Amino acid sequence: MGVLFEARGLIKRYGHVEALGGADFTLNEGEVVALIGDNGAGKSTLVKCMSGVESPDEGELLLRGTPITMASPSDARKHGIETVYQDLALAPELGPAENTYIGRELLKPGLMGKLGVLDKKTMRAKAAEAFTSMGTDVKDLDAPVSALSGGQKQSVAICRAVMWASGIVFMDEPTAALGVRQTRNVLKLIRRVAETGVSVVLISHNMTEVLEVADRIEVLRLGKRVARYDAADSNVEQLVGAMTGALDTGDIK
Amino acid sequence: MTATVTPARRVRSKLFGATAFYLLGVIVAMAIVFSIIRPDAFPTFANSRNILTDVSILLVIAVGTTYVMVAAGFDLSVGSVLVFAGVMGAKVMAATGGEGWTTVVIGLVVALISGVVWGVFNGVCITVFKVPALITTLGSMGAALGIARLITNGNDIRTVPLSMIKFSVAEFLGLPWIVWIAAVVAVVGGVVLHVTRFGRRTYVIGSNDEAARRGGVNVNAHLIKLYALSGLCAGFAGFLSLVRFSTTTITGHSTDALQVITGVVLGGTSLFGGIGTVAGTVVGMFVSAVLNNGLIVIDVEPFWQEVAIGFILIVAVYIDQRRRRRRSRA
Lengths: 253, 330
Ligand SMILES: Nc1ncnc2c1ncn2[C@@H]1O[C@H](COP(=O)(O)OP(=O)(O)OP(=O)(O)O)[C@@H](O)[C@H]1O
Ligand SMILES: [Mg+2]
What we know:
The complex is a heterodimer.
Chain A: E1 3-14, E2 17-28, E3 32-36, H1 43-50, E4 58-63, E5 66-68, H2 73-78, E6 81-84, H3 96-100, H4 110-114, H5 120-133, H6 150-164, E7 168-172, H7 180-195, E8 199-203, H8 207-213, E9 216-221, E10 224-230, H9 236-244
Parallel strand pairs in A: 3-8, 3-9, 6-7, 7-8
Antiparallel strand pairs in A: 1-2, 1-4, 4-5, 9-10
Chain B: H1 7-15, H2 18-37, H3 45-70, H4 78-96, H5 101-127, H6 133-152, H7 162-169, E1 171-172, E2 175-176, H8 177-195, H9 197-207, H10 209-214, H11 219-245, H12 256-266, H13 278-297, H14 303-329
The complex binds adenosine-5'-triphosphate (ATP) and magnesium ion.
Protein name (chain A): ATP-binding cassette domain-containing protein
GO molecular function, one term (chain A): ATP binding
InterPro entries (chain A): AAA+_ATPase (IPR003593), ABC_carbohydrate_import_ATPase (IPR050107), ABC_transporter-like_ATP-bd (IPR003439), P-loop_NTPase (IPR027417)
């Protein structure tokens, strides 16, 4: 299993706040990595830096060993990187299918397409197909996303990312608003995605969930990576200890 | 999940949005009342034609405003841009000389360009320099009118080519050409907003600009295009106004933006963006047009119309706010 994606020494400052203070991150091909850390540890910021939303002040990103720069989320997408943002980034007034195609709208073939006419039917059908195959319970494709429950909204954002990803999916707390059954579905989906060869980075505060689904775990504290574990030989106490700093592990290679 | 929606209701709400649908009822009710008071003067073909002609020019502006407001933008400058474009068009036509169509076409092109220039200026200030849309367009509202006055020393230009005067009285199927032109603008504007990628992205940006940005949409470029479109519509309206009155109307457009925004919001476009249709806007614009016309026909002081429109705007925004709040709670 080769290294797919790597972040080295990322620094990101917001004014006087140093959200990332030289953070590292490693992701191998086809694996599920959990990124954990306390509130404010810098997890979301790290994901934003690795998905083109924010550009780090310092540090480098390597994809399959080659340094890359990502000036925008579209750059990240060109590398096959998709993200489920913590704030979901959905357009509340639009429907689930329409949200799935933001920025990637399909056009009708031929002259109509040249004039910029949308192929609404195909987009709808493909989105419906994706929702069904991923086992989400979004039934009404015409209701605006604002009318969906928190969990359904999250499902839409997850489906969108998984549908388009070809290399990496970042998921920033994808199960935060989900019930037990939906959480199970998402965890299953994460494993299924990983089996197709796409690597998944999961941010979560739920340690049992993390230990269950992840191959590896990377711990972030105060904007730095402080520990890495194989899920198979770690436990909840260890993870919590590393997150809070009660336990200082020298596990970093 | 919400209750099931019948297909008929879906089509209806897609076309107008619920508010605008009830507004159709309001228009009908007003028409009935005015017809009862003045059966000889209100429900006549000539009067209907007046209403249509009156609404045409503002409707052309309103189409551009709908796009801007669906994207959660705001454009107060349209009335002044209309005047500016009309003045530029008239000036250039006078300088070109001649009474023929070539001169008219040159005037049209100049008016359109003048509108687009103001629109791009607004768009750049708002997106690149991050000056709030309200302030930017308030500023260009003053500036555009000021420049128009400087160019003309404050006096209307009353010379237009003969072919333009002829065109202003020409009719097609009993209606002046500008009515048909406005109808075409509305239909094209409505279709483009509804079926194209450009239209879809306009909704996305208005609904959640960050979602658009993360989806890879160049939000700033799109917004600049929208303000340019609004300027284009205002410029075109300026030219149509020249056609209709055969003179610039420098002092006559200070409340255009207010009237247009009222019509657009009444028609169901949300001040917060993401929602709105051109069909709704058409209905919204007819509310003030019918009210205006009816009050004149029944001999009420026309100032009452301004009073009414002012309050209607407040009510429309109140309804919009409430709808918004209810949704965010859901
Ligand atoms: N846009 C911003 N402007 C200013 N400060 C920010 C911004 N985004 C993040 N920060 C700060 O950076 C730090 C890290 O934030 P981040 O959102 O990455 O944490 P997190 O690990 O995702 O936390 P949580 O578990 O609560 O989601 C915090 O101190 C936060 O206040
Ligand atoms: Mg976070």
